[in-house]
Give the backbone structure.
Amino acid sequence: MSTLRKIITEKNKNCKSIWFMRQAGRYLPEFRKIRSKNKDFIKLCLNSELSSTITLQPIERFKIDSAIIFSDILIVPYALGQKVNFIKNEGPYLSEINLNTFFNTSEDDFITKLQPVYSAISKTRKKLSKEKSLIGFVGAPWTLIFYMYNLKKEKKLNYLFQNLQKSRILEKLINFLCIHIKKQVEAGADVIQIFDSWASLIPEDKLAAFCYNPNYQLTRFCKEHKIPVICFPKGLRKNYLNFKNEVKPDCLSLDYTLDVSWAKENLNDTVLQGGMDPNYVLKSDTEMFNETKKYLDAFRDVPYIYNLGHGLLPKTDPLKLEKLIEFVKGY
Ligand code: CP3
């Protein structure tokens, strides 16, 4: 069994593991080389040969314990009929949602469109040693909706909260995210992470409907299929505690705004992951090591997976990351 699975399923405190969100990406020159020749990002995600190569790039370079499949959370809205474009320095932009297409996309169409992701997972699993996990992932429904309705541009949050609750959009997303999880696992993913990167935008009285409940349903699905599941409800602050109690994930990924002692005191009955601000990897060695110590010391006596409080930044120097990995492994 992989070290990551061992920590999560056995709550093994003596087992250490390290990987990074966004470890396969823009800070790596070998990724940028491939990317410069593949202008269409979604097409690149659906090129199973290249996706597998990119997934393995950080594994070949660093002493890390897990690979995360190179894909994107927005591959799901894509498979449900939206065009997904990435505008330089602006991020993702999705074509206007067509609810007919969205609701009429069948399970078979959806799986056919995403088949290259599953092939990439099988290819990668074959090349990865048994001690290493291959992490599959999905975006949580709310975070997908944030992009599906281009909420960054248009301030229609309130309208959406009013109307979505009554609609079947959440339900359809949850069903199809479960299919995507199941297919990733059948292809060889052995841990699932659920990214709720925009959970912080949900008002307090809507958290149950838009965050806890959808994450709970996806988590329950993983548990029913015996797949260890990590949840990342970014920006929930003290509501991380409610999230833990309501959703009951196998592992909770901490974001960089959480106070370390608060997290240790309030969340220590579950396996924890991450926490440090990715900006520290851009600072001096001393600053980076001191901050790292804070996390390693605080979580010394609980099952803890080393990671950061969000994804690696594009400006990260790979050599700096190597120093961080060596420090964590040697501490
Ligand atoms: O973690 C990994 O290395 C695996 C692959 C992965 C990507 N995106 C590749 C990617 C994963 C797990 C994601 C998750 C993802 N995608 C999230 C959740 C995590 C988080 O960061 O909060 C979100 C919100 C997205 C949506 C998304 N995709 C955005 C906002 C962007 C543009 C800016 C950015 O953050 O990179 C992307 C594009 C994207 N996804 C790139 C990569 C390597 C960059 C593509 C490029 O321009 O070269």
